[in-house]
Design goal:
The chain is an alpha+beta fold and 199 residues long. Helix content is 23%, strand content 21%. InterPro entries: Phage_CHP, Phage_gp6-like_head-tail.
């Protein structure tokens, strides 16, 4: 199913790792590098989080919107971000030009396998859609919840990436031919959480 990429409506209010936690991890007891450490937290989080992240997951609670062009034959719409906390709305534009919101009883999210799917009831009366790639709009809240709800391996990976960025200020060290090595532990920590991209 050819789909438009999802877009984030509401960004997380906080990062999975606080500045205080990162400073404790780095054994930094002064405020001189707070901006630098905060930038490292943001960069490490962005590497993992959201549609552009390597995991295909949302970490802290955030709102996403996706579009589909038609009702799938099996009435199953894979969602790009996991985990899904709730679906705010499913709306569509009809061939007559009307905007219709499906009742909450017309759909549910199946997420037991880790790849969330919006299941539209086989008994729901679905209108004929306008011919457009964004005829159906699905708005949902994704993420594990609050920072404390983000799995410990992912929070640990962020801290390790922050440590790498704090220790190495450049991508290559003076007098060393190879690039600065990053921790292979990060890859091992995040590997179980990687998802295949929904296309």
């Amino acid at each position: 199913m050819l789909r438009l990429p999802p877009w984030r409506v509401t960004a997380p209010a906080v990062t999975p790792v606080t500045l205080a936690a990162a400073k404790q991890h780095l054994a930094v007891d002064h405020d001189e590098h707070d901006d630098r450490i905060t930038l490292a937290i943001d960069a490490a989080t962005a590497h993992l989080d959201g549609y552009a992240g390597i995991l295909g997951r949302a970490l802290v609670r955030q709102t996403w919107r996706e579009h589909v062009a038609f009702w799938p034959a099996g009435r199953c719409v894979p969602l790009a971000l996991a985990p899904v906390l709730s679906v705010a709305s499913v709306t569509c534009r009809t061939a007559a030009g009307d905007q219709v919101t499906l009742p909450e009883t017309a759909y549910r999210v199946l997420a037991e396998a880790g790849d969330p799917v919006l299941l539209i009831s086989m008994t729901a009366d679905l209108p004929t859609l306008e011919r457009a790639p964004d005829a159906v709009t699905i708005t949902y809240e994704a993420g594990y919840g609050d920072p404390a709800d983000v799995p410990a391996p992912l929070r640990a990976a962020i801290l390790m990436m922050v440590g790498d960025q704090y220790r190495f200020t450049e991508t290559a060290a003076l007098g060393v031919a190879s690039a600065v090595p990053m921790s292979v532990t990060v890859d091992r920590l995040v590997a179980p959480f990687r998802r295949f991209r929904v296309s």
